[in-house]
Amino acid sequence: AQSVTQLDSHVSVSEGTPVLLRCNYSSSYSPSLFWYVQHPNKGLQLLLKYTSAATLVKGINGFEAEFKKSETSFHLTKPSAHMSDAAEYFCVVKTASKLTFGTGTRLQVTL
Amino acid sequence: ETGVTQTPRHLVMGMTNKKSLKCEQHLGHNAMYWYKQSAKKPLELMFVYSLEERVENNSVPSRFSPECPNSSHLFLHLHTLQPEDSALYLCASSQTQASHSYEQYFGPGTRLTVT
Q1: Once rounded to an integer, what is the mean pLDDT over residues A62-69?
Q2: Over the stretch A66-97, which tens digit does the pLDDT of each residue have?
Q3: Is A76 left (phi over 0), alpha (psi -120 to 50) or beta?
Q4: What are the Cα distances from residue B72, in Å, to A4, B22, B31, B69?
Q5: Read out DSSP for chain B?
Q6: pLDDT of chain B along its 115 residues, tens only?
Q7: Contacting residues for B27 by C-beta, under 8 A, at least 6 apart
Q8: What are the chain A neighbours of B97 within 8 Å (beta carbons)?
Q9: Which end of chain A, N or C, is more open, meaning fewer C-beta atoms within 10 Å of its C-beta?
Q10: Cis previous bond, A18, omega within 30
Q11: Which residues of B touch A (CB under 8 A)?
Q12: What is the pLDDT of residue A53?
């Protein structure tokens, strides 16, 4: 069995400040992990993925995530938030062909 | 066109209507998926097609009927829907090889409202 927990349903940051979106997972197997972003009225866009190579993964738009096996975490970070980062973010765990989505974290960016 | 496209983008239908959602992928993938996204709920996988054969059906009501005529096209036929079926329906595609699938690429979704 596998599961993913996004610890915050809503995060608000000021423009130019760091972003941290938290994700914990459980899996019986070595998982692949993904972060997707969904802007209003749009589909999900892949931000980055971890597939058992480097534990620090860099994605698009300045985002990165670190896989920490000991903590079963895959938190998403960005050094400096931009207004265009306001969206919903989904953490996803995958083993073989099964994907499990988190419930999402809505990121609000204020001036 | 590139990526995954879905039509229509918005659909309003009565409970007695019959309509179809269409998805097309231009990525050369061999697996396609239908998801339902409702407010405040995790994404729900509805159907999976791999190499044009249905490999997973997560106990979806029979009023939803998928069709995959080829590896690039996926349809979701709808009939006698209920108001609780109102949601964003997302299509995705991926490459699969030896029971292992790679990351999925999503379309923009169809916003369905059942009146």
Answers
A1: 95
A2: 999 999 999 999 999 999 999 999 999 987 76
A3: beta
A4: 30, 11, 9, 8
A5: --SEEEE-SEEEE-TT-EEEEEEEE-S--SEEEEEEE-TTS--EEEEEEETTEEEEE-S--TTEEEEEEETTEEEEEEES--GGG-EEEEEEEE-EETTEE---EE---EEEEE-
A6: 569 999 999 999 988 889 999 999 999 999 999 999 998 788 889 999 988 788 777 789 999 999 999 999 999 999 999 999 999 999 999 988 665 667 899 999 999 999 9
A7: B2, B3, B4, B93, B105
A8: none
A9: C
A10: no
A11: 4, 6, 40-43, 45, 48, 50, 90, 92, 96, 99-101, 103-109, 111
A12: 75
The nearest CA of chain A is from the CA of B45 a distance in Å of 9
Burial class (CB in 10 A: 0-12, 13-18, 19+), A65: buried
How far apart CA B31 and CA B70 sit, in angstroms, is: 10
The verdict on a CB contact (< 8 Å) between A43 and B106 is yes
